[in-house]
Write a structure and sequence with these properties.
By secondary structure, the protein is an alpha+beta fold. The chain has one domain. It is built from 6 helices and 5 strands; from the N terminus they run βαααβαααβββ. The strands form 2 sheets. A 3-stranded antiparallel β-sheet has the order 1-4-5, with no helix packed on it. Strands 2-3 form a two-stranded antiparallel sheet. The longest helix has 29 residues. The two termini are about 30 Å apart.
Amino acid sequence: MTATKSSQGVYYARSDFCGATRRFAVDTIDVVAAFVIWFVACMVFGHFQPEFRWTLNAFLVSWLLVWFGYFVILKASPWRTLGYRVARVKAVDLQGEPPGVVAHCMRFLFSVLGPVNFLIDLLWLSTDPHGQTIRDKLAHIYVVRVDAKPCGVGAVVYRNYHILGYTFIFREVEPQGPRPLTTG
């Protein structure tokens, strides 16, 4: 496959990726933070609107709005989520740029659609040579240290993955030469 300028991306050293332990900490902090924000918002809204009746639909809509705002809008912003800030990580796309709202929306949908996806992601992350979870692969995102710099440029290739009976085609950056183990 010949790589053209538009079909190139950047790759990072393996040590620059957010590993499984750090990713677990990020996810735990972010889930707790989003829950606290949702809970406070519900209490404040209920306090200022005493005639409001909490129904299952109101709970679900409020939860979805807060979690979408936190896990999509805030993650796509330069401020990042609390978990990203504490763990000193950031999300980048295959070109090393901050991903947009659409990419974060894809990651969010994958996370919300199945509670087991979180466990599958952590298991997948521990063996993936690109340091990505399945939701990262779907959204074409890397989660790397804040100070990470790309090691080089490589061709963007399409790879088939067979996961739980499904076939996926993911875009990945193929490093030129052996992948460096460290940044220094």
